[in-house]
UniProtKB/TrEMBL annotation:
Residues 717-883 form the PNPLA domain. Keywords: Endoplasmic reticulum, Hydrolase, Lipid degradation, Lipid metabolism, Membrane, Phosphoprotein, Repeat, Transmembrane, Transmembrane helix. This is lysophospholipase. A motif (GXGXXG) lies at residues 721-726.
Length: 1043
């Protein structure tokens, strides 16, 4: 087969520039010079946008050619002869200020591109007032896709309410629509392609934007259409009605008049009868037919965006078509079609329709026109304002402090928002995936852009100017409600992470990881690449695909695309088909080759996230493909995944893997079943995984954990501080495991950091309990405690004995080597900030997180020398930190001190000798006075009380507090008793969760909860060689997805 090759366009030369190579070598040199930065700042390409997309000053092309090239992209790729043919028709039009480019009553038959100056596109309201829809700056255009389609279909209409004028003296390039007719005559094979692209843009930009994000439904269509008797249609030659009706008349033996060969329709048309109440097609269906109503009628419905309720959009009467948009675009059906009354209709499948069009291409114009005339005047007006943008990876759509004049909607791809602080440092603010709105807050509030947003990968956006948004709000006030709902969700999400972003507590991630947000938010595509040839990439992909099935029930892996054509005119077809896979499936996996082939480059360009897969027991060297990946400055987030054998050793030397890969923002360890490392042939492996796919995956497996992380469904366990009361957390872990709740991330403070680290290392309750109990017994040793006493300048104890106890538990284990991702909280008294440690020496940071003031000296951070103390002073239950690191649900176990108001009032001073006498004298009245450890524990609770209240009220947190108030902070001698209390309480809590549906909600996919796109479309996933037919309208070709 022929590997798909992308023909370089005029703009592709800017993709990988010398600047990117300079960045690569500069970063390489810096890593050798400064070891301190090995895990510090991200590679510059991750947070920096490229230059503007069309750099007119530095281009060798004239500005008019460059601008025209940019604006005819909306109609797809044109080869050089076609583009030059279009350029012959360009007309330069100088405009003084206030001069009209076009006005109501004039024919709508041109594309206008601004070369210099500024135009205003306006709309005339019913009361005569004028409203500016958008401003058009140099390089941008004024056109309507609907108008272009009308023109080439032979249905030219005048402007009714839209007009454009020069806001300042300007020069405009005018491209008459008849230029396209000349091109179609010389190159007839381009006609159908252009019509198809126009229809795709209308569906993905106009309808997706206005329906999915602004909530408009019936406003988009003419609900009343003129009824057409079928027999009248035979008067219109060369139309689909003509062909279908003649076939229908032939079947009924009514007419023998056929100017064309009726054999064209043999075995392609079916006459169907459906009774009243039949569901003909469902919204989201992939297998779509073109239907022509003979008698009766069909009702077309669309699901409301915020509910399951459906609204009737329009009715299909006899003589009319339905299904045109889905058939022409190849996209899933956006409507539901029902027969509320008995109905007869003719039906042609999508594939048969393509065969007809190959022999009679003009039929596509009539079919497209029958759909376009359904559109309301409002859609025609707004089509002038809505723009479709294709943004290459690295390009900025706007920069910080730019004027806010529009809102962007992500149709496909991924973008990153970066904020530049006053000190010049850049920080990742957010990432946006399919369906997200960008810049809507600034546009509505007329504020300057707060961040710079650039494309991580090649992306498609819909651009909605501020003027058009105001027009829509005035015309349809219900849109305001929709926007308030969207903004409310965004604000609520931000409030729930207050403090994590660094505003409240001065949060500082000790690993200096640039991505402190959720890296898996709204991922659509994941590329899987190997470190070396030894990595079992096929079985890894299949295991991950199997695990993803348990989450979204809807994933697909695409291993390689082989095309029977190499012409770059079909690039858009492959891109469109891959985009459809993202629409249909919850997540799409791309398996790269082991070398930098064209397919591997395609995988990188399509990636929201890249998994770099290596063998954990091999040397941590950087593979050749990785070096090439860094050299190309790919901006997608990269995660290192290390594979380990089931019966192999625990992870080690992870820090070496990461130090060689500054481009990796995180890592995961996967313990793999033996079948992953099978050396069977690919055919035998596929047979084996056919059987594997018939069984549900083990939700506790590491592949399922990876699947939950990638889909934003991770479950975090967060353990709070509270001294010996933390022993109850071991019992709760036991009940958690027995209930079957998986844990994908562990975090803790103080005693919780110790218990959490043990569980993250062992992953089973028995070993966690044994090691925790051994440590608790050592804590009760009076001899070691006395021997550790020191002169109390900084603290009562030197900390050496405590250090030895912690080090005996964890030895020299690094946080990076734990099986489950782990973080620990400390208080940095040098920088007055909360520290979140996700790498480094495990025993040191656990010890630092348990350092009570006055008892032990602060621990000096080996990285920067900052003094670290008990994390309980700043965040005793860090559920918010776990949420910010990607958890969907956080199970938070609180064992901190609670209010006690029955303490003894001992006056203004207190003698320790008096307390000692009261405690030892059996005849003395007992007094209740807090000891030093209890005072420290209570201080931690008081300082975090507001943060704790926010965590308890948040919708992502499941708060648990076992009944352990009677136990003291230093009651480690009662380990078994406290542990049993936690176990019994956990059993009761988790039983209640199971009965109330909490567990079911916890395990459900986050996108199923807030699903707002197409219906429950499912595509069977390939456990065998997957082949999919992609149809060209001129020539069929096969796209095979092979392993």
């Amino acid at each position: 087969g022929l590997v798909f090759r992308r023909r370089p366009s005029l703009s592709s030369q800017y993709r990988f520039r010398k600047r990117d190579k300079m960045m690569f070598y500069g970063r390489k040199i810096m890593r050798k010079v400064s070891v301190l930065q090995e895990n510090g700042e991200p590679p510059p390409s991750l947070l920096e946008a490229d230059l503007t997309e069309f750099d007119v000053k530095n281009s060798h092309l004239p500005s008019e050619v460059l601008y025209m090239l940019k604006n005819v992209r909306v109609l797809g790729h044109f080869e050089k002869p076609l583009f030059l043919e279009l350029c012959k028709h360009m007309v330069f039009v100088p405009l003084p200020e206030g001069q009209y480019v076009f006005r109501p009553g004039e024919l709508d038959n041109s594309i206008y591109v601004v070369q210099d100056g500024k135009l205003e596109v306006c709309i005339q309201e019913n009361d005569g007032s004028e409203l500016v829809l958008k401003e058009v700056l140099p390089g941008d255009s004024v056109h309507s896709l609907i108008s272009i389609l009308d023109f080439i279909s032979g249905y030219i209409k005048p402007f009714k309410t839209v007009f454009a004028k020069a806001a300042i003296p300007s020069t405009v390039l005018r491209l008459p629509a008849n230029a396209f007719q000349d091109v179609f005559e010389k190159y007839p094979e381009t006609l159908v392609r252009v019509v198809q692209i126009i229809m795709v843009r209308l569906q993905r930009v106009t309808f997706l934007a206005l329906h999915n994000y602004l909530g408009l439904t019936t406003e988009l269509f003419n609900t009343v259409s003129r009824k057409i008797h079928p027999l009248h249609q035979f008067l219109l030659p060369n139309t689909i009605y003509f062909i279908i009706l003649k076939y229908f008349l032939l079947k009924l033996h009514i007419s023998n008049f056929f100017p064309q060969d009726p054999s064209l329709l043999d075995d392609k048309v079916n006459c169907l009868h459906v009774p009243a109440g039949t569901l003909v097609s469902k919204q989201g269906d992939q297998d779509v037919n073109l239907r022509f109503v003979i008698t009766g009628m069909l009702h077309v419905y669309q699901r409301n965006i915020d509910s399951e309720k459906e609204t009737c959009l329009f009715i299909i009467h006899p003589g009319e078509l339905v299904g045109q948009l889905a058939v022409l675009t190849g996209e899933p059906l956006t409507f539901t079609i029902k027969a509320n009354k008995e109905c007869y209709f003719l039906s042609i499948s999508k594939f048969d329709f393509y065969e007809i069009m190959r022999q009679q291409p003009n039929v596509v114009l009539t079919v497209a026109h029958t759909f376009v005339r359904r559109m309301s005047s409002f859609v025609r007006q707004i089509d002038f304002a809505l723009d479709w943008m294709e943004v290459e990876a690295g390009r900025a759509i706007y920069r910080q402090n730019d004027k806010s004049d529009c809102t962007y909607i992500v149709l496909s791809g991924r973008l990153r928002s970066v904020i530049k602080k006053d000190d010049g440092k850049k920080r990742l603010a957010a990432e946006y995936g399919r369906g997200d709105l960008i810049g809507v807050v600034e546009t509505l509030t007329y504020q300057s852009r707060a961040t710079t947003v650039h494309a991580i990968r090649d992306s498609e956006l819909a651009k909605l100017p501020g003027g058009a948004l105001n027009f829509i709000k005035r015309r349809y006030p219900q849109v305001v409600t929709r926007l308030i709902h969207l903004l409310g969700q965004k604000i609520l999400g931000n409030l729930q992470q207050v403090g994590v972003s660094g505003h409240q507590h001065g949060v500082y991630f000790s690993s200096s990881k640039w991505d402190s947000g959720n890296p898996a938010s709204n991922l659509s595509t994941v590329t899987i690449m190997p470190v070396s040839d030894d990595v079992p990439l096929l079985t890894f992909t299949l295991e991950l695909e199997h695990a993803l099935h348990d989450i979204g029930k809807n994933s697909v892996s695409i291993n390689k695309v082989l095309l029977s054509v190499s012409s770059s005119v079909h690039e858009y077809r492959l891109s469109s088909w891959l985009g459809q896979q993202e629409d249909i499936h919850r997540i799409v996996l791309y398996q790269a080759d082991t070398t930098l082939t064209p397919w591997t480059q395609r995988c990188f360009r399509q990636a929201d996230c890249i998994l770099i897969v290596g063998m954990g027991d091999q040397e941590p060297s950087v593979g050749e493909l990785e070096k090439m990946l860094e050299n190309t400055a790919v901006r997608a987030q990269k995660q290192l995944v290390l594979l380990h054998k089931e019966d192999g050793p625990d992870p080690s030397r992870t820090v070496e893997w990461l130090n060689m890969r500054s481009w990796c923002s995180g890592h995961l360890h996967l313990r793999c079943p033996h079948r992953v490392f099978s050396r069977k042939s690919p055919e035998k492996l596929m047979e084996m995984y056919e059987r594997v796919f018939q069984k549900p995956p083990d939700i506790h497996s590491d592949f399922c954990r990876l699947a939950r992380v990638l889909t934003g469904n991770a479950i975090a366990l967060v353990l709070g501080g509270g001294g010996a009361r933390g022993c109850s957390q071991v019992g709760l872990i036991r009940s958690l495991v027995e209930t079957g709740i998986p844990v994908d991330m562990v975090g803790g403070t103080s005693i919780g950091s110790l218990m959490g680290a043990l569980f993250a290392e062992e992953r089973n309750y028995i070993q966690t309990r044994i090691r925790a109990k051994q440590w608790a017994i050592e804590m009760t040793s009076v001899v070691k405690t006395v021997l550790d006493l020191t002169y109390p300048i900084t603290s009562m104890f030197s900390g050496a004995a405590f250090n030895n106890g912690i080090r005996k538990v964890f030895k020299d284990k690094q946080i990076e080597d734990l099986w489950i991702p782990y973080f620990v909280i400390t208080t940095d008294i040098s920088a007055s900030a909360m520290r979140v440690h996700t790498d480094g020496s495990l025993w040191r940071y656990v010890r630092a997180s348990m350092t009570l003031s006055g008892y032990m000296p602060p621990l000096c951070d080996p990285k920067d020398g900052h003094l670290l103390m008990d994390g309980g002073y700043i965040n005793n239950l860090p559920a918010d930190v776990a949420k910010s690191m990607g958890a969907k649900v956080v199970i938070a176990i609180d064992v901190g001190s609670r209010d006690e108001t029955d303490l003894t009032n001992y006056g203004d001073s207190l003698s320790g000798w008096w307390l000692l006498w009261k405690r030892w004298n059996p005849l003395a009245t007992k007094v209740k006075v807090l000891n030093m450890a209890e005072i420290q524990s209570r201080l931690a609770y008081v300082s975090c009380v507001r943060q704790l209240e926010m965590v308890m009220k948040s919708d992502y947190c499941e708060y648990i507090r076992p009944p352990i108030d009677e136990y003291g902070t230093l009651d480690f001698g009662r380990f078994d008793e406290i542990c049993e209390v936690g176990y019994q309480y956990g059993q009761n809590v988790f039983d209640i969760w199971a009965n109330n549906g909490v567990l079911e909600k916890m395990m459900s996919d986050v996108q199923e909860i807030r699903k707002m796109n197409t219906g429950d479309v499912s595509l069977s996933v390939c456990c065998q060689i997957l082949s999919c037919l992609l149809y060209s309208f001129q020539q069929g070709y096969i796209c095979s997805l092979r392993n």
